[in-house]
């Protein structure tokens, strides 16, 4: 093989290796943040899949299960509030609530303070399943946190909480402040209660 052929082969190998790598933003600091973002996305995706697999026997879709989780955290939300906390439009949420009501998982009741509104409550259908659901959630979380001591878990919780609060303020500020130099009106949202605590 000639020197030119060897150079061309080497160049071709270099291109092939470069094509297999995920493009990253310029700058070492940005690259680290980019990778952390991907890791957070992967953790969320895999955690959702683990819950789907664990609770598939309930016969609920992921979207329906999310509505039930919101009601387990705070029962009696309005349909509008459910749509906002789940970050979907009101029409799709309406269809989810309709289906859950047909299946007997939730019921609508008039709002005592607003005759035009109705609030959504979970029914007793889910109550016998709560111990099993909490145990299943504890199993998933124990597996996910295996190898992390209490100090590691505490640091992780504080870090993620701070990131969430900053991003909440940023997102709520879009379209309200010309420059994000202060907190949004009304402050940050109250943090949600932990999902299906085992205690």
What does the main sheet amount to? Answer: 3 strands, antiparallel
Unreliable stretches covering 5 or more consecutive residues? 2-21, 175-199
Radius of gyration: 24 Å
H/E series, N to C? HHHEHHEEHH
Per CATH, the class of the largest domain reads Mainly Alpha
* CATH level-3 fold name of the largest domain: Arc Repressor Mutant, subunit A
Spatial strand sequence of the major β-sheet? 1-3-2
Structural class: mainly alpha
Shape: globular
Put simply, the count of helices is 7
Question: How many domains would you count in the coordinates?
Answer: 2
CATH H level of the largest domain: which superfamily?
Winged helix-like DNA-binding domain superfamily/Winged helix DNA-binding domain
How much of the polypeptide forms β-strand, as a percent range? Answer: 5-15%
């Amino acid at each position: 093989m000639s020197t030119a052929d060897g150079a061309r082969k080497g160049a071709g190998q270099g291109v092939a290796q470069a094509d297999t790598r995920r493009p990253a933003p310029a700058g070492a600091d940005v690259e680290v943040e980019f990778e952390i973002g991907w890791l957070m996305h992967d953790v969320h995706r895999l955690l959702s899949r683990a819950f789907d697999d664990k609770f598939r026997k309930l016969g609920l879709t992921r979207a329906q299960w999310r509505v039930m989780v919101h009601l387990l955290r705070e029962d009696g939300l309005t349909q509008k509030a459910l749509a906002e906390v789940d970050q979907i439009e009101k029409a799709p949420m309406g269809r989810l609530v309709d289906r859950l009501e047909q299946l007997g998982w939730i019921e609508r009741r008039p709002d005592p303070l607003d005759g035009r509104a109705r609030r959504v409550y979970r029914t007793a259908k889910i109550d016998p399943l709560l111990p099993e659901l909490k145990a299943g959630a504890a199993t998933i979380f124990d597996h996910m946190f295996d190898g992390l001591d209490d100090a590691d878990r505490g640091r992780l919780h504080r870090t993620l909480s701070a990131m969430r609060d900053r991003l909440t303020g940023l997102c709520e500020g879009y379209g309200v402040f010309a420059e994000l130099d202060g907190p949004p009106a009304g402050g940050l949202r109250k943090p949600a209660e932990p999902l299906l605590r085992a205690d």
